[in-house]
Automatic annotation (TrEMBL):
The keyword Membrane applies. This is HTH HARE-type domain-containing protein. One of its GO terms (biological process) is regulation of DNA-templated transcription. Keywords: Membrane, Transcription, Transmembrane, Transmembrane helix.
């Protein structure tokens, strides 16, 4: 389809919609990404999928074969997939959840600085561990394998132990250390949010394609800031994970103390090969407006799971979630109590 601008649009209206961009004869606009690129370049500002499509429709550059009831959902999915798949190679980036812009403007001095801050793409587990990852002696972790303790007790054990250091993830096992993870569980009353892990999100063999009830984040030295409320930056890491994986704004967690994730317990969890990690479990009580849908989160099969009874197939869950669900079911409530 050749780009055709409706004669009914006057020059001034056209200028305000697409900055009078005209493609060379023969160039086609036949994909959602083409449309996003053209509109974002013309408008020179971040836009959401709905606004991009509305602008394209007014300028009559929306091909007939792309019309449909789910085009907004499809465009957002296409943009998210492109950013996730190509990473640095993508021409798009997020400025905040649901808002997209073109990287070509990042070096433009006239482009507002507030629009040059890139909102991170959703994370893959293999991308989580950073060079400055926190590591803890395996002997300390092994003592927690069949139990859990409070964060305050864990802090006491750390004091003077010399068991905590910073290390490259690839060097941990051979030196007798384990990684430290946060694992944030989203709660709604007596239910917790579960979803299925795709291999892209988590390519560990015992985790991929299984269901999970948490969102993991590997702790690193950079998670601790002057404003951190705990010595390891646990809450900072957990909030970062939830903002990225659930497409939430930081304001969600800043409105009130009740919206800040709560540290539930510290434990040691193993995968099916027996490799241990120290896991700090957190609970986030979701606000009333939050509803997990594939449209919003780009998660596989999200659903709320009651913790009062064990799931029909516990083996369908990755190892960490299976262990934690067992504890929650035994307690008959969607929380851990230690203090």
């Amino acid at each position: 389809m050749k780009l055709a601008i409706s004669p009914s649009l006057c020059s001034q209206t056209l200028l305000s919609i697409v900055s009078f961009i005209i493609l060379p004869l023969g160039v086609t606009v036949d994909s959602y990404l083409d449309i996003a690129r053209i509109v974002l370049r013309a408008r020179r500002r971040p836009m959401g999928a709905k606004s991009i499509l509305a602008t394209a429709q007014k300028a009559e550059i929306l091909p007939a074969h792309l019309f449909g009831k789910t085009q907004q959902k499809t465009l957002q999915a296409r943009l998210s997939e492109d950013i996730l798949r190509d990473r640095e190679g993508s021409i798009f980036y997020r400025t905040e959840p649901g808002q997209y812009a073109l990287k070509e403007f990042l070096n433009d001095p006239d482009y507002p600085a507030k629009w040059k801050i890139e909102f991170p793409a959703r994370r893959r587990t293999r991308d989580l561990k950073r060079p400055d990852s926190l590591a803890i002696r395996r002997t300390m972790v092994a003592s927690l394998e069949n139990t859990s303790i409070s964060m305050s007790e864990f802090s006491e054990r750390l004091d003077g132990s010399g068991g905590l250091t910073v290390m490259q993830p690839k060097d941990m096992k051979k030196h007798g250390y384990c990684a430290i993870w946060t694992f944030s569980i989203v709660r709604r009353g007596s239910e917790v949010l579960s979803y299925r892990l795709g291999r892209y999100r988590d390519d560990r063999d015992t985790f991929a394609n299984r269901r999970s009830i948490g969102f993991p984040g590997a702790l690193a030295a950079e998670d601790v800031s002057l404003f951190s409320t705990d010595r390891l930056g646990v809450l900072d890491c957990a909030v970062g994970v939830l903002t990225q994986d659930l497409d939430l704004s930081l304001a969600t967690f800043e409105d009130s103390a009740e919206q800040v994730p709560k540290i539930e317990c510290v434990t040691a969890l193993a995968d099916l090969q027996g490799d241990l990690d120290l896991v700090i479990v957190l609970r986030w009580d979701s606000p009333d407006w939050f509803e997990p849908t594939t449209k919003r989160l780009s998660l596989n099969d999200p659903s709320w799971l009651k913790t009062s009874a064990p799931p029909n197939d516990i083996n369908d869950f990755e190892p960490w979630s299976a262990r934690l669900l067992g504890w929650l079911t035994a307690k008959g409530q969607a929380e851990f109590v230690h203090d």
